[in-house]
């Protein structure tokens, strides 16, 4: 059993201390770097909390759409190549997958951007 708080909670605590206590004390030329570090910590925290589920779901959806198996990175490259060739220009399922993938990435990187937004393309 892991000690509490877990890794995600530790990142959240560290990020809060950095933002609220340390950031105001930094010289102006160091603020941007400190904010980047705090943002990276926030992304890592959210990824830890969500686990591998979103990645596995995306991999399964891509495999079904492309009718092939493979690692997520390879499937993503294949999907991008087929999009460039115009194979999915009118494909509703491809559009849905792109939308869901984008929303998932925003959930991890900038969740406040989703507040008040619609749930579909």
From TrEMBL:
Residues annotated as domain DUF6285: 24-112
Top-level division of the source organism's lineage: Bacteria
InterPro entries cross-referenced by the UniProt entry: DUF6285
Pfam families the record matches: DUF6285
Name under which the protein is recorded: DUF6285 domain-containing protein
Species: Corallococcus praedator
């Amino acid at each position: 059993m892991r000690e509490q708080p877990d890794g995600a909670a530790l990142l959240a605590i560290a990020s809060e201390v950095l933002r609220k206590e340390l950031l105001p004390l930094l010289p102006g030329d160091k603020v941007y770097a400190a904010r980047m570090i705090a943002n990276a910590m926030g992304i890592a925290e959210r990824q830890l909390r969500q686990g591998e589920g979103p990645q596995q779901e995306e991999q399964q959806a891509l495999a079904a759409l492309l009718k092939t198996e493979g690692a997520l990175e390879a499937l993503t490259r294949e999907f991008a190549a087929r999009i460039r060739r115009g194979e999915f220009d009118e494909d509703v399922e491809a559009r849905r997958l792109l939308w869901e993938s984008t929303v998932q990435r925003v959930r991890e990187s900038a969740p406040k951007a989703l507040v008040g937004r619609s749930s579909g393309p």
